[in-house]
Amino acid sequence: MGASRRGIAHLRLGNVVDARSFLRQAQRHFDDDAVVAARLAEAEVATDWPQRARDLLEPLAKADLMPDADAWTALAKARRKTGDEEGARQALERALAMDASNTAAKALQQELAPKPEAPKAPAVPAVAPVKPPSI
User: Phi/psi of residue 30, each to 5°?
Assistant: First the structure.
């Protein structure tokens, strides 16, 4: 089994550190493979390297070479973690357009949804202090 398949298997099993190691090795041999780059980016985000994930995915997104909804979701996570919430929302739109049932994309979309403002308490009129009666 090649490094890319091992990496993807580890990624799907949740072994993101091992996945990252195998996928980096695979990328050295297949540096123009969009699927390998996308899976490596997923592992980079999961191991808290969101800028590395963006470096891998932004060129693919710009060239419209993102292989699947998981790649768009990884880009959304990476954008969010680097402070680009609007970009994250845009990536999620693309992810859900490709796969409306993508649970990771739907969960992140819920997290990014604007929160309704809590109702404000009515203003309490200022009351002048009352002097106690003198006796």
Answer: -130, 65
Q: What is the largest CA-CA distance in the chain?
A: 98
**Beta strands in the chain, from DSSP E residues, in sequence order:** none
Give the model's pLDDT for residue 124. 65
Tokens read off for 93: 């739109």
Contact criterion met (CB below 8 Å) for 53 and 74: yes
Model confidence pLDDT, tens digit, residues 60-78: 999 999 999 999 999 999 9
Query: CA-CA distance, 59 to 57, in Å (whole number)?
Result: 6
Pairwise CA distance, residues 124 & 135, whole Å = 32
Domains of the chain, with CATH numbers? 3-112 (1.25.40.10)
Residue 126: band (very low, low, confident or very high) from pLDDT cuts 50, 70, 90:
low
Asked if 39 contacts 11 with a C-beta cutoff of 8 angstroms, the reply is yes
